[in-house]
Amino acid sequence: MHNPESAPSPLRWKPNVTVAAVIERDGRFLLVEEHTAGGLKLNTPAGHLDPGESPAEGCTREALEETAHHFTPTALVGVYMARFQKQADGEDITYMRFAFAGDLGAFEPDRALDTGIVRTLWLTADEIRASTERHRSPLLLQCIEDYLAGQRHPLALIHVDTSVKQGGPTP
């Protein structure tokens, strides 16, 4: 039986939590083209959740850092998981992605994009479907398809305890 008071095993599996913005305007989706170990890849504005952030806050930050656009999440499109093995060292990684729909805000034209981001692109769903070999994540297309199917969940579905902002309870 697992004892929650015991220290976690060094081999305990933990997914990497990421957040993604599904941003649509006039039938086109805002994607980023970025350098990866596998070459130039396409992705929704996305990245890792930082300590002290709610998933919605992390999504807002990542969208701004990667696209220079302000973004306000208004709904959760879905929660997704994918697993892959790094080619370089064989590391087995699982990602858990929180994908959000929302409102696109102001653009900051003088803002530098995150390291590795080459440019932003506005692509149609058909263009995204036709470019799966260039997708950074296998979750990119699924998030777009779920968005197009009208899948939206209230942000209140994700409860963020106050301990997240306070650094957690003291033992």
From TrEMBL:
Top-level taxonomic group: Bacteria
Nucleotide-binding recorded as keyword: no
Pfam families referenced in this protein's UniProt entry, alphabetically: NUDIX (PF00293)
This enzyme's EC code(s): 3.6.1.-
SUPFAM superfamilies listed in its UniProt record: Nudix
GO MF: hydrolase activity
Alphabetized InterPro entries for the sequence: NUDIX_hydrolase-like_dom_sf, NUDIX_hydrolase_dom, NudJ
UniProt keyword Ion transport, yes or no: no
Domain Nudix hydrolase residues, every copy: 12-145
Cofactor(s) of this protein: Mg(2+)
Family, as annotated: Belongs to the Nudix hydrolase family. NudJ subfamily.
Protein name as catalogued: Phosphatase NudJ
Species of origin: Variovorax humicola
Source species taxonomy: Bacteria, Pseudomonadati, Pseudomonadota, Betaproteobacteria, Burkholderiales
